[in-house]
Amino acid sequence: MYHGKRVAVIIAAAGQGSRLGASVPKQYLKIGGQPVIVKAMRVFDGMEAVDHIFVVAGEDYVDYCADLIGSYGFEKMESVVAGGSLRQDSVYNALQEMNRRRPGVEYVLIHDAARPFISEEVVLNVLEATEESGAAVACVAMTNSVRRMESGGDRSESVDRSEYYSVQTPQGFRKSLLIDAYEKAYDDSFFGTDDAAVVEHAGGQIAIVDGEYQNIKITTKEDLPMENRVGTGFDVHALTEGRKLILGGVDIPFGKGLDGHSDADVLTHAVMDALLGAAGLGDIGLHFPDTDPAYEGISSLQLLQNVREKLKEAFYEIGNIDVTLIAQKPKIRPYVDEMRKNLADALQIDVSRINIKGTTTEKLGFAGREEGIACEAVASIYR
Predict the structure, then answer these.
(1) Strand order from edge to edge, sheet including 105-112
(2) Domain carrying residue 294
(3) Residue 75's CB: how many other CB atoms inside 10 A?
(4) In sequence order, what are the residues at sequence separation of 6 or more whose Cβ sits closer than 8 angstroms to the Cβ of residue 197?
(5) Is the CB of residue 356 less than 8 Å from the CB of residue 248?
(6) Residue 126 burial by Cβ neighbours in a 10 Å radius (0-12, 13-18, 19+)
(7) Model pTM?
(8) What CATH number is associated with residue 106?
């Protein structure tokens, strides 16, 4: 509660985030190991001033969102509501659900799920101003010069940036004021870009509260914080008669080949595991199980291309890859350049980012007895 009044938060997470170009809406991407929406919710869930949290998700993601949020054990989470075609429709759906389940709520905070860096200080400032004036919005002053385009787009003019603010969330309202404003908006066929615009249309006055420049909204991939990660991979296969020896996509003349479900390219497998590990995406057994007939005899370079796509979907770029092949025989030096090129082509990176070297075990162990070949790899990625 806030000064004896119940407070509910609506997390607006129904957007598709198409400008980011990800395979899932931006609010479900991970930053620092946590989904963006989870990071956005943590501040509210940990505040004594907040009593209830409602999430509004895209219709196709309601179950996914509910399962995801449920796995983090938020104590104040109430329900996930299906959104509408517009943001205004989505928030109104959540308002109706909130009013049905928690009619005693006095203040409502609405926050973008794509703003994961909100601070408790800003939330409390918005609540304080909401209590005083009925409606308040977190904003920051414009730091860049601002120009206004005249109608027709032929001319522009400079404007005084001190008169303008960039709007953030949370936006806070007395519940009765907000619901009345939404009903008037629909009666008037008015659609605002945010909740403050809806309340303003109904005659409400909006107080401005100092936001924080770090409270950015994730919109494009450039908004994601810089992140560097490292992963390791290790694989081993037994040598056997009647199989080709494929290493790094190269068919190497040898009396034996490696046993496995695919082409058993132990070198490429280690690289795949290192990349998947760096991105926190599991391992090759998870994505390409040896029980699946679809992968029987498949080229590991083809699987490596699939791994590249998974990294791309998570907005990771490859820094470099270092590979050590462990085998008594054959010597791989004559084939290293071709291996590097194969891996580089599959990953769509410059060959200079890949290093491959071989070593023996001085005839010790299974590799020294020429019973199998092992490989380890280290990969760095960033976004």
Answers:
(1) 77-82, 52-57, 6-13, 105-112, 165-174, 135-141, 207-210
(2) 228-382
(3) 7
(4) none
(5) yes
(6) buried
(7) 0.74
(8) 3.90.550.10
User: By three-state DSSP, how is residue 215 classified?
Assistant: coil
282, two tokens: 């599991």
pLDDT in tens, 195-207: 999 999 999 999 9
In a domain, 265, yes or no: yes
Quick: pLDDT tens for 357-382: 999 999 999 999 999 999 999 999 99
Q: Would you give the DSSP letter of residue 59?
A: G
Strands (E), the chain: 6-13, 30-31, 34-35, 52-57, 77-82, 105-112, 135-141, 146-149, 156-159, 165-174, 207-210, 228-240, 245-247, 250-252, 257-258, 317-326, 354-359, 372-382
Q: Confidence band (pLDDT; 50, 70, 90) for 189? A: very high
Average confidence (pLDDT) over 137-159: 87
Task: Specify the pLDDT at position 285.
Answer: 94
Question: Which pair of tokens denotes residue 52?
Answer: 């209830």
76 and 202 co-located in one domain = yes
In this structure, the answer to whether residues 147 and 17 fall within a common structural domain is: yes
Please indicate, yes or no, whether residues 65 and 186 belong to a single structural domain of this protein.
Answer: yes
CB atoms within 10 A of CB 267: 31
